[in-house]
Structure formats: C-alpha cells, structure tokens
Amino acid sequence: MAQTLLEQLREMTVVVADTGDIQAIEQFKPRDATTNPSLITAAAQMPQYQGIVDETLQTAKADAGPDANTQEIVNLAFKRLAVAFGRKILEIIPGRVSTEVDARLSYDTEGTIATARDLISQYESVGISRERILIKIASTWEGIKAAEILEKEGIHCNLTLLFGLHQAIACAEAGVTLISPFVGRILDWYKKETGKDAYEPAEDPGVLSVAEIYNYYKKFGYTTEVMGASFRNTDELTELAGCDLLTISPKLLAQLDAVTAQLPRKLSPELAQDLTIQKISVDQETFEKMHGANRMASEKLAEGIQGFTKALESLESLLAERLSQLEGNEVVSHAAEDIFRAYDLDGDGFITREEWMGADAVFDALDLDHDGKITPEEMGSGLGAAFRLVKV
User: Fold this and answer.
1) b/e per residue, 205-220, with b = 16+ CB within 10 A?
2) Nearest to 86 by CA among 145, 134, 24
3) Active-site amino acid positions
4) One GO cellular component from the entry (predicted)?
5) Quick one: 304 and 347 in the same domain?
6) In whole angstroms, what is the distance from residue 163 CA to residue 297 CA?
7) Helix or strand run (H / E) with residue 119
8) Contact indicator for 316, 73 with CB cutoff of 8 Å
C-alpha cells in the first residue's frame, strides 16, 4: 500500500504538534507538543479548560495571602498557567513540551534566566523532570546569552522567532538544544517586499533560510536541533523533508496525510558534508551588525515579540475578569473583542496574517472562511476551533 506524504515525512523527520488542546492530544498522542502565548490565551477562553484556569486562580489567591490585591493574584496565576497546561500535556505525551518565557523579557537576560528557573522549579516541584521541558526564548542576543547559561544548568531551551543565519549560529555556539526558524513568516515578508504572489517551492525564501541553517549545523557538527515552524503550504514541508523536526498546523498535516506520492529526502547530514560553506564566528558585535543588515530578520523578530506581548496582555485581562467572576462579581467578558482590537493594527476591521503575529495554527483556525482575514465575528465564534489536531 502506498504511503502518504505524512507517513514518509515521519520516517525522516520528527513531526511535532503545535497545540494547547489537551483533548486533541489525548486523542492523537503526538511525541512532543509546544505552546505559546496566543495558544494559551485562546485555550484559556474555551469552556473545556475553564477548570484549569479556575484552579490556577484559586490556588494563586490562596498562596498570595488575604491581603493580596487583584493584580498580585493575577500576576501569580499568570506565571503558573502555562505550567498548568504543560503538566496536563505531559501526562499524555511521551516526549517534551515547550513552555515560553514572557515575551516582554526578550531583551532582559537576567529576567529571562530567573523566569526559566522558576518555570523549571514549578515543573520539578510536581515531579516532572527538566529533561521533558524546553524553555522557549526569543532569539535576541540577550535571549541567546540567557539560554547559554541555562543550558549549562541542564535547562534545555527552544530559541524561537528565529529568522536569520546569524541568530542560528549564535544559538549553536551557545549550546542551545533546539531552534525554531519561522519559514512562513519569512515568505510573508518577501512577498510583501517584492510584490510577488508566489515563489517556486525550491526558491521559497523561508525554505532556503532553514536549509542554509540545517546545512551549516551539519557541516560543522553542531548538535543543536533544527525545528522548522510557521508553514504556509505543503510544498514548504516537502522541500524540507529530512530536517530534524518540523512543527506543522493541523490543516497542513491533514493535506499531507491525504496525498500518496513519492517524497524524496531533501536534507541530510551526508548531503551537507559535500557543500562548500564558510564558517562564521558570531560575537555580539558581529550579531548586531548582521542583524542590522538583515531588515527582514530585524522586522520579523520585533513583530513577533510584539505579537506575543499582545497575547500575554490579553491573557492578563482574561484572568482578571475570571477572578472577579469567581469572587461573585458580575462581569461582562470582552476578551475576544480585546484580542481583536490588539491585533487589528491598522483599525480597518479585520486582522491579516501579518497583523496577527501569534501562532499560525490559531490564525488558521480562527479564519473560518479561509480568506486570509479574521473578522470580529470569526474571532468571537472561532476560539473553540483553534486547537483541532490531526494524528501525527
């Protein structure tokens, strides 16, 4: 019987589920899972996960003490909620879960280190080994330096919002466990910059970027894993067959699983050895020079941090609303409207993929009519669909 593209891809690449939907994970049991601020924010608004939110808030209220105000309780619950979801996920999957550091600390090395240690401490306090956790950190110079220190403590890191070779090299030299280069967002930038509607699969700028990073790592023997992320179509995935890991949206997984065709391996350590590649040593001065010269990487990194920050701010508002409800106050929730206003950057009444800047899987689920835009109505009605998952 002929294999599907997804079946063949899994033979050469680890496929990772990018979801916070615990029910879906229970059903399909992927090896690894990753969460981010927009996934947690959306999940926290779904009725089936209200128990996790409520328990986290109530425990935070008790631990904060009788004199704590609402903001103090919300701050404590906020720090614990991602771990609460992560713990539930780890009860189901055999591998690792990624838990993200507050994006507002992206340029704060010491703050990132302190938060990562706190996250690991929370997991270890309930018997979960740090070997099963990846701490997600934005690939700023400050974030990479934090990861370098954390890795030496046995705290493994997933460096995200990665768009350029300079970021990847700095991560590898810092001994980072895993990086998540964003394929689709690179394509988005080039399409907007050049006015081109489409690229041939082998010429896709995001594909070329990840292939360059993968080949550089394998050529020079770095052990840092490459996990391609943020895909726009299945062609990008098939062009990166053989990459260490790929994290793929439910929609694209379904498309891969529906096609039976030969899938040749495009990336491998053996192929990389035959390439002529110049080795570059990246210190802070080199990093900043290369980052400044790469307008795409500079803009997309800043946008990504901004997007995750917006999601976190929405989550804080949501927790404050729910705490007030638990205390017996009548509250009209405006969470969906608040999220919409935060992401509708130009105020034109809909959110494009570029404006969203959160998780691509969430955007795809909220874009109910698949026209590339999220309306207020879709935002209000689509949150419950944001975590559908197919088997991986």
Assistant:
1) bbbbbbbbbbbbbbbe
2) 134
3) 136
4) cytoplasm
5) no
6) 5
7) helix 109-125
8) no
Identify the H or E element spanning 181.
Answer: strand 178-181
List the beta bridge partners of residue 245. 14, 227
Rounded to whole angstroms, what are the CA distances from 51 to 105, 143, 293, 312?
28, 33, 48, 20
Over residues 208-254, the pLDDT tens digits come to 999 999 999 999 999 999 999 989 999 999 999 999 999 887 778 88
CA distance linking residue 109 with residue 115, whole number of Å: 10
Tell me which residue of 1, 35, 4 sits closest to 260, measured CA to CA: 4
Q: Are residues 287 and 367 in the same domain?
A: no
- The neighbouring-strand residues paired with 182 are 229
φ/ψ of residue 97, rounded to 5: -120, 140
Packing angle of the helix pair 284-293, 165-173 (nearest 10 deg)? 160
**Bridge partners, residue 162, by sequence:** 181
Place of tokens 């062609």: 235
How many whole angstroms separate alpha carbon 60 and alpha carbon 63?
Answer: 5
Domain coverage including residue 150: 5-331
Give kind and range of the element (H or E) at residue 178: strand 178-181
Distance CA 194, CA 204 (A): 13
The answer as to whether 122 is a domain residue is yes
Tokens of 296: 């795409």
Our CA angle for 115, 171, 364, nearest 5°, is 75
Domain containing residue 348: CATH number: 1.10.238.10
> Is pLDDT of 11 > 60?
yes
Q: What are phi and psi of 99, to 5 degrees?
A: -125, 130
Residue 177 · residue 134 · CB < 8 Å: yes
**Same domain, yes or no: 60 and 104:** yes
128-152 pLDDT, tens digit each: 999 999 999 999 999 999 999 999 9
Instruction: Report the residue count for the chain.
Output: 392
Name the CA radius of gyration of the chain, rounded. 20
